[in-house]
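Researcher: Next entry in the queue.
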Amino acid sequence: MRLRVEFTTEPFDLDEAPAHAVVAREVVEAAELDAVDVGPFGNTAEGGADQVLTAVDALLRRSLEAGATRISLQVNVVGEGAGAEVER
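Model: Structure for this entry, 88 residues:
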C-alpha cells in the first residue's frame, strides 16, 4: 500500500524556520520516501506504508521534542490501492 502524508508544524515563524520545522524537514528527507515536497506552509511525502508510518512516528516525536506546539497531519492511501480493501 502507498501512502501520502501531508503535515504542518506550529508555531509559524515567517522570518526564520523554527527548530521544529527544521527537524520535521530532516525527518522526511532522511526517510526512505519519494515525492518529498517541503514548503513554508505545508509538506508532503509519499512512499510505502511502512516507510511513511515510520517517518510519521519520528516526525511527531522529534518535532514535539524540538518545540512544536501543534502538528496537523493527514495520511491518505494513494495509487492502485486507494479505496480498495486491504488483503491480510
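Model: The mean pLDDT is 88.
Researcher: Noted, moving on.
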